[in-house]
Amino acid sequence: MTANRKDRIRALLKGIETGDAAAVAVVSPDEYMQHNPQTHEGREGLAALFKRLSKSSPRVNIVRAFADGDYVFAHTEYDFASSKIGFEVFRFEDEFAVEHWDNIQERRGPSPAGHSMVDGPTAATNLDQTEANRELVRAFVDEVLIGEQVQKLEHYVGDESYIQHNPQIADGLPALRSALASASYERIHRVLAEGNFVLAVSEGSLDGVHSAFYDLFRVADGRLVEHWDTIEAIAPKTEWKNNNGKF
Fold this sequence. Notes:
The chain is an alpha+beta fold. Helices cover about 25% and strands about 35% of the residues.
């Protein structure tokens, strides 16, 4: 069932290219909770969004996709009017997707070390370490990002070998330590994992702007060794097209 759900989400997202209403068949016709504030509720709202986006001749690439229980989460590239990078999260009940979250930002880069926002390994390994890796990332976010215990970085992060895909940050531990000053993490909402890949969904602010942080980590030997992310400003509630909230 897990592989089938991943394939169905891949087909759903590729439907953005064509605007084909059939692409949303994976979405429950009776219950679909939408957490993208700019999208209307339900299957019909999603179909309308796809139809609108298809007019710009978009291109969609699902770089990596993972499953965690009833959740499927994907790391994506979009070429709409501009090039964007996103994370998409879907919750399933039986055969249908019933809830959706995302976080999308403009493509930037490459990073100071020459990495793009999406390159690197794509397949999950060490599936027996899923829960240990989830707890490692949760503790890192709680203690270092939210708790600001920067002195604990070395406990969690591989030293100079740490690979950074954020376009503004260099590889290695010193660059990460310096970058932490610009973002304020306030709450972690969800930690999803498959094997050595873990996605943390958090809320906070960047340069004073209320923002959503989606951080994807690759874990090896009990350390965080690679990082991808998207950061999206959260629109004011007066602009929302549904009342479900970003998280």
